Amino acid sequence: MRLKRKFIAAAVGACLAPIAVVVLPAATASAHGYISSPPSRQANCASGAVSNCGSIIYEPQSVEGPKGLRSCNGGLPQFAQLNDESKNWPAASVGGTVTFNWVLTARHATSTWEYYIGNTRVGLVNDGGKQPGATVSHTISMGGFTGRQKLLAIWNIADTPNAFYSCVDLQIGSGGPTTPPTTPPTTTPPPTSTTPPTSTTNPPTGGTWAAGTAYKAGDQVTYGGSTYKCIQPHTAITGWEPPNTPALWQKV
To answer: What is the enclosing helix (H) or strand (E) of 151?
Structure first.
């Protein structure tokens, strides 16, 4: 009888073993995109311009959460530092129209791009489900807002329920009120490009590419014995080495 019981137990264990093998945790979704210029909060953290940011410094492109949120961290607790208004977030000086430059490490099919100041949507770009390039630029009117403002940019993915979030701190114009005027402006402010001006001196050469460094267009670095020129402002992270990111670097 004991021998029979042992045989049954062994048989049951053999049947259950495959079930244990296949019950595995689901892989997390990858996340790939943020505003590099004017520097978003995650870009400022990654470059070291703002300290004590937590894990966002290693993955500024990973602020992904459900669509419809209005938070800088996309609802992710590990990136809660992005919501901390007590931090000394640098504000980029801009005019009434701003060009926002995105760096995308995964070119997800896109429904829309949205830009908010407070509860006001100041910009909407509809991509209709097409796949964007490795870099994307949108020129957006600030809708009459002036002074220091926090802009929330949202990249809505077409084929998933998720979006990517990126907050940018701005100083619009020369100061003044931080709320929109009570009546819409009668004229559109002249466009002001936020693309870094071409340097009057030769761009830096001989520097070695390094993750965590903020590069502007025209900067030159060396990597693997070759020289590369930056063609898109961004903050470098591991995995974006010049040979791997032709959208950011051009071999000289």
So the answer is: strand 147-157
